[in-house]
Design a protein that fits this description.
Layout (H helix, E strand, L loop, with lengths): L6 H58 L5 E4 L6 E15 L2 E14 L8 E10 L1
Antiparallel strand pairs: 1-2, 2-3, 3-4
Length: 129
């Protein structure tokens, strides 16, 4: 019976190692989940910034009947850059009225390509005056 005095120490060390490995795994999972949540939020912000660029381009066509070639906007969404471009696609005639067709492209970016937090969204729409 005296030979089993150290077996409890080995068991305790084994349990401590397992618990510490489990704790490290949970910390890693929490960090990944946090990064995923942040990128999802940034993605939604990029979409809204790109949508604001499309709406701005449509407003230019409706109110000033002009197509903006390339314009960089800074929306009220922090650190996003939105580039809006507009091209004339063509014209069509309907009931004696001629309409001009425009293609508006809006791209919103956060960060630089290759960085870990880089997010980009591009929206495109076709409108006529």
């Amino acid at each position: 019976m005296n030979q089993q005095k150290g077996i409890t120490l080995v068991g305790a060390i084994f349990v401590l190692v397992i618990v510490s490995l489990l704790g490290q795994y949970l910390i890693n999972i929490t960090g990944v989940q946090r990064q995923t949540t942040l990128l999802t939020l940034q993605s939604a912000r990029a979409y809204q910034a790109a949508r604001a660029g499309v709406e701005w381009g449509v407003d230019r066509i409706i109110n000033s009947a002009s197509c903006v070639a390339n314009t960089t906007l800074t929306p009220n969404i922090a650190n996003f850059t939105t580039t809006v471009s507009c091209n004339t696609v063509g014209t069509y005639n309907e009931d004696g009225t001629e309409f001009t067709i425009y293609r508006i492209t809006s791209e919103s970016e956060y960060g630089s390509y290759g960085q870990i937090g880089y997010v980009s969204r591009e929206l495109e729409t076709i409108v006529h005056d």
